Amino acid sequence: QSKPQARVDGSTGVTFNDVAGIDEAVEELQELVRYLKNPELFDKMGIKPPHGVLLEGPPGCGKTLVAKAIAGEAGVPFYQMAGSEFVEVLVGVGSARIRDLFKRAKVNKPSVVFIDEIDALATRRQGIFSESTNHLYNAATQERETTLNQLLIELDGFDTGKGVIFLGATNRMDLLDPALLRPGRFDRKYKRRMDKAQTARGREHRQARGQAGGCSGAGGRRGSGQAGARVKAGRVWRNCMALQAERASEIRIRPPRAKGRLDILKVHARNVKLSPTVDLSCYAQNLPGWSGAKLAQLMQEAALVAVRNKHESVLQSDMDEAVDRLTIGPKRVGIELG
Ligand code: ATP
């Protein structure tokens, strides 16, 4: 069985300077860089290490780029695999790959593990199968569940692998299995449910106090009977919820707006010789819906057009032609120009 290996980048060479238009996400992710630069400090200060982050957003908006930038900023190895590389028919192969991936990352910690298209590996269980496809469904489902479980085990075991950060990326959060999603949504759910739990706990305390003839604090909690048991169960439940809350969180990478598009164009204009007469803000305004990837492509295309037109730098007319080529296609541009 050939074994896809994680692509490892000793140093990605990408930094937050290469990322534009998603400042909020970058701001939130700075925490991970601080941690990766000095995991021991977090440990010494008694701060729980950050676990995983799910990056959600449309294609080409910089999920992979920002993941690489985290590793690049911290100067740590970057282990990258696609979710589809874990999808196997043979039971146990996918989970073995997950184990292997995290094992290698732990050996070289601090490090970043990045799984792109994580939906391929962690799709929501369907629960629909017919008689004829029963055995196929079961084999595939069993394999997928084993792989997903292994991922959850690795994420839960991060305390033992301190210094490893997990990043997953998806365009389809709605497809993800709730087992993986739960922690991400958890901050909000956790708060709400905590409030309920606290109310219940308060009620139980009051009941316990009443039953125990007004004893307070530890005495009340120690009071025998159902109230005490419920309080204990509540505590266990909350601890369990807290554990899950720490497993992962979600960060949404949104498509860039006009200002973001301008910043992205500026980042990619650094690599081309651009005439000072080109007004990038005009393109940023007039290209709504263009992703970071498409804007990067625009600058590359404009440079190619400039070379073809024998210009010494990229002119506004080259930019216009590049926009046309990317929107209506080179053939049609050729016909129209020809
Ligand atoms: P997919 O969901 O298809 O995997 P993605 O969100 O991971 O897409 P990236 O692979 O990070 O997208 O982006 C592709 C390329 O587009 C990047 O290498 C970069 O050149 C450019 N790009 C995308 N977003 C940005 C951004 N926010 N700032 C600067 N460049 C960007």
What would the average pLDDT be, to the nearest integer?
76
Oligomer: single chain
Strand content: 5-15%
Order of helices and strands: EHHEHEHEHEHHHEHHHHH
Structural class: alpha/beta
Reported for the largest beta sheet, the result is:
6 strands, mixed
Work out the radius of gyration: 26 Å
Question: What ligands does this structure carry?
Answer: adenosine-5'-triphosphate
Please report the total strand number as a whole number: 6
Number of alpha- plus pi-helical segments: 13
Lateral strand order in the biggest sheet: 1-3-4-5-2-6
Percent of residues in helices: 55-70%
Shape: globular
Question: Could you explain how this protein is built, in words?
Answer:
With 338 residues, the protein is of the alpha/beta class. It is 56% helix and 9% strand. The chain is built from 13 helices and 6 strands. It has helices at residues 23-37, 39-44, 63-74, 93-107, 134-156, 178-211, 217-222, 226-245, 258-269, 280-286, 292-308, 316-328, 330-337; strands at 7-9, 52-56, 78-82, 111-116, 164-170, 248-252. It has a 6-stranded mixed beta sheet, sandwiched between helices. Strand 4 (111-116), helix 5 (134-156) and strand 5 form a beta-alpha-beta unit. Helix 1 (23-37) runs parallel beside helix 3, helix 6 (178-211) runs antiparallel to helix 8 and helix 9 packs across helix 11.
